[in-house]
């Protein structure tokens, strides 16, 4: 864990050495994506990270109840799309994640395009 954390920390600390066009692209992304984290925020989180914290996060969030929403595009039937969803759910169950019941799903507002 420490080796990975230190590698990420070094990468974040050397961000200032990136090319100017990379900085411009980065700041454009930050401005256009309000839920993005800055390099400084990522560095602070990295420095505070601990193995126990990651284990706690896994236990509380990843191994808790979760929902999966799949978007299948292309040449796939409805049955094939459901099969892909079932594979994703099975993978989560392998790691002790319990699916949320449908009445607890959070629905995002969306538009449906008609052909």
Automatic annotation (TrEMBL):
<dbReference type="GO" id="GO:0051603">
    <property type="term" value="P:proteolysis involved in protein catabolic process"/>
</dbReference>
<dbReference type="GO" id="GO:0046872">
    <property type="term" value="F:metal ion binding"/>
</dbReference>
<dbReference type="GO" id="GO:0005829">
    <property type="term" value="C:cytosol"/>
</dbReference>
<dbReference type="InterPro" id="IPR011249">
    <property type="entry name" value="Metalloenz_LuxS/M16"/>
</dbReference>
<dbReference type="GO" id="GO:0043171">
    <property type="term" value="P:peptide catabolic process"/>
</dbReference>
<keyword id="KW-0479">Metal-binding</keyword>
<dbReference type="GO" id="GO:0005739">
    <property type="term" value="C:mitochondrion"/>
</dbReference>
<protein>
    <recommendedName>
        <fullName>Insulinase family protein</fullName>
    </recommendedName>
</protein>
<dbReference type="InterPro" id="IPR050626">
    <property type="entry name" value="Peptidase_M16"/>
</dbReference>
<dbReference type="GO" id="GO:0004222">
    <property type="term" value="F:metalloendopeptidase activity"/>
</dbReference>
């Amino acid at each position: 864990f420490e080796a990975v954390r230190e590698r990420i920390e070094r990468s974040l600390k050397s961000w200032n050495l990136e090319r100017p066009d990379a900085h411009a692209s980065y700041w454009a992304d930050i401005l256009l994506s309000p839920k993005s984290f800055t390099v400084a925020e990522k560095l602070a989180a990295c420095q505070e990270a601990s193995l126990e914290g990651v284990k706690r996060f896994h236990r509380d969030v990843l191994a808790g109840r979760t929902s999966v929403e799949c978007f299948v595009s292309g040449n796939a039937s409805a049955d094939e799309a459901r099969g892909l969803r079932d594979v994703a759910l099975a993978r989560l169950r392998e790691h002790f994640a319990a699916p949320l019941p449908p009445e607890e799903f959070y629905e995002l507002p969306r538009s449906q395009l008609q052909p």
